[in-house]
Amino acid sequence: MKYKISEIADFLNREFKGEDGVIIGCNTLSDAREDEISFLANPKYVKYLATSRAGVVILEPKYAKEVDKCIISPNPYLDFARVVGLFAKAQGEFTGISDLSFIHPDAHLDKGVVVYPYVFIGPRAQIKKGTKLFPGVYIGEDCFIGEDCVLYPNVVVMGQCIIGNRVILHPGVVIGADGFGFAATQGGREKFPQIGNVVIEDEVEIGANTTIDRAALGETRVGKGTKIDNQVQVGHNVKIGSNCVIVAQVGIAGSTRIGNNVILAGQVGIAGHVNVADGCMIGAKSGINKDVKKTGIYSGAPIMEHNKFLRTCAVLPKLPDMHRELKRLRQEIDKLKEQFKDIQDK
């Protein structure tokens, strides 16, 4: 697959500076060859422009003088991502429906659905056109899978769950396993039946080995356009808004509400029955144990405003010295109190 630089510029609707040429791939500034396209989005890599052999670089207008050939963009990272899409090859080449799959007679598959070997599709499940099911996928009874979805190997969608259009579920994702609900008894803990479902809205992407539990009652929901990384745990009855970004190893306990456009960095933990306002950014390893009512940037466990968290971090290494100094001052104050008491007694 190859494109002229001018064709790529037209595709992006961006200005092209320099002589035209042929591009056959994408690469980093430091590794790109003369027939590859690269990009500059982070100023700390400007130093590589002088030595890069890239056939063309996507960059901001202020750096255009640094190279002979460039595509000028207000958002180089986004435009480069779109160019990579031109060269990207989709995973898997199988077409049709494998005889080694099991499709229940009461299931309905649109024309154009791809079913790899060893897929199980349960009764009354509906799979819409353009969707691909890789080996080991399990679709339970009464599930709905929308158009142009990709379910990679060993994805599990338990019964009654709903998946929207253009959803990507990476290997090992589990949608609709029972939520963690138990009632205390004198003899131990008795299971609370989890009879709700999970709804995944359009354009959601979920990373490998992430689990989204079915609701105890009602639904667990992930909003349109949200992107979830690998190894994330979403508890029962959680509601996640649209266009959120949830990074690896985040844990969200049951009945929590996450607003729209929220970013949760790696290993954030959120207690149950908590609300997080629209547009919040939560730093890595933070712990949320109460409602976050105001849009902002937060960090720490428990969380606090990010600037306060940074000041707190700056103080922490000094605490041992501060403790010793406080102990010394207390001893001096105690001595002064004793001396003052002696003076009063006299």
Compute the number of helices. Answer: 4
Provide the spatial order of strands within the biggest beta sheet. Answer: 10-13-16-19-24-27-30-33-36-38-39
Q: Specify the CATH homologous superfamily of the largest domain.
A: Hexapeptide repeat proteins
The CATH architecture of the largest domain can be named as 3 Solenoid
Strand-pairing-aware structural class: alpha/beta
In quaternary terms, these chains amount to single chain
Gyration radius from CA atoms, angstroms = 28 Å
- Share of residues in strands: 25-35%
**What is the CATH class of the largest domain?**
Mainly Beta
Helix share bin:
10-25%
The profile of the biggest β sheet is:
11 strands, mixed
Quick one: how many beta strands? 39
Residue-averaged pLDDT: 94
What is the CATH topology classification name of the largest domain? Answer: UDP N-Acetylglucosamine Acyltransferase, domain 1
Outline type:
flat
Regions with little confidence, pLDDT below 50 for 5+ residues: none
- The rounded distance between the terminal residues' Cα atoms is 100 Å
* Number of structurally distinct domains: 2
